[in-house]
Amino acid sequence: MLRPTTIPSHPSLPLHEHILQRAPSPELVSRVQTASSIISVLITQHNNSEPYTYTTMAAASSFSPSLGLLAAAHCALLLAMAGAASAGGSALSSTFYDASCPGAHDVVRRVIQDARVSDPRIPASLIRLHFHDCFVQGCDGSLLLDDDLPAIQTEKTVLANNNSARGFPVVDDIKAALEHACPGIVSCADILALAAEISVELAGGPRWSVLLGRRDGTTTNVQSANNLPSPFDELEVLQEKFRNVNLDSTDLVALQGAHTFGKVQCQFTRENCTAGQPEGTLEDLDRVTPNLFDNKYYGNLLEGSAQLPSDQVMLSGPAAAATTAPVVHRFAGDQQDFFRNFAASMIKMGNISPLTGSDGEIRKNCRRVNSKGH
């Protein structure tokens, strides 16, 4: 019989930072960082979880569900290492601000905690900003830019964001606090990444090490923003949009799980304001535990009571049975499985085409590029 294995904790320096000693390309950097960070998540979850028993024809064995994922992530890390020595670029790192702005995480957390006292929706709103930023030309803070025509056309007014994306004043407050603590150091793109993790944690969800070192873009992409995932997308369309940013069906199901808290306008729901409310009437995305980050959302799907059409299609779509439905059932039955996968998928999403090194800039005002009088 195989005995449960306790995996050793990480070395003091993150594994990917031992590996990335020869300045690999941004693409390889992203692969190494993502695999290493996912391994870190899985190690934590594995060491804190109970093994379960499965039976084969030969014998019954004890096995931790995270070991298979851990092995897969480790293989991905080794594959990335194979090419890492031959290219150039800059790496994101969980320790990026340790010397230049050691209190960055605490500053972001304090501002969010203060904001949620008067606006309990803020955690859900902030994580949504990170999603909508990363899905448009990568995690570069482009969503935060206001109109500055003719050079900058804002992404805030596209259909997916207009009168919907919110929390920008809180981002401004975070930026102001960070500029006071360590001027010109922390990017707006990293603010969104940190705010997303802290928001999930404050709502009762998982924690993960956020990779940092993104720089801010100086352009927007309205055409790409007009193709953000929609609450009315069929499953195949959603899967294609996620594949386009190197996220798979498990990532899709996990990241859609962010709909476990927050609110939505009834015009976007499956009931479509049928009770006669105005289109902007807000409804809880999860009617069971609307302010908690948990796995009740997946139970809603199993009951056929998901609020958004794009959520329910993960069970009802033609391709669901072979792709997303098994993952929905898994997450509905195991909150820790959901938390583990959500954290891993957030790390992957946060590595979509970041600007690093000398690319982009560190904005002084998240709403404007520095060259415009700042």
UniProtKB/TrEMBL annotation:
Any one GO CC term of the record: extracellular region
Signal peptide: none
Top-rank taxon: Eukaryota
Needed cofactors: Ca(2+); heme b
Record note on cofactor: Binds 2 calcium ions per subunit. Binds 1 heme b (iron(II)-protoporphyrin IX) group per subunit.
Catalytic residues identified in the record: H132
Keyword Ligase found: no
Residues given in the record as heme b binding sites: H259
UniProt keyword terms in alphabetical order: Calcium, Disulfide bond, Glycoprotein, Heme, Hydrogen peroxide, Iron, Metal-binding, Oxidoreductase, Peroxidase, Secreted
Binding site for Ca(2+) 2: T260, D286, T289, D294
Listed InterPro entries: Haem_peroxidase, Haem_peroxidase_sf, Peroxidase_pln, Secretory_peroxidase
Domain Plant heme peroxidase family profile: from-to ranges: 91-370
Protein location: Secreted
Binding site for substrate: P229
Enzyme Commission no: 1.11.1.7
GO biological-process terms attached to the record: hydrogen peroxide catabolic process; response to oxidative stress
Disulfide bonds: C101-C182, C134-C139, C188-C366, C266-C273
Reaction(s) catalysed (UniProt annotation): 2 a phenolic donor + H2O2 = 2 a phenolic radical donor + 2 H2O
Similarity section: Belongs to the peroxidase family. Classical plant (class III) peroxidase subfamily.
Function: Removal of H(2)O(2), oxidation of toxic reductants, biosynthesis and degradation of lignin, suberization, auxin catabolism, response to environmental stresses such as wounding, pathogen attack and oxidative stress.
Protein name: Peroxidase
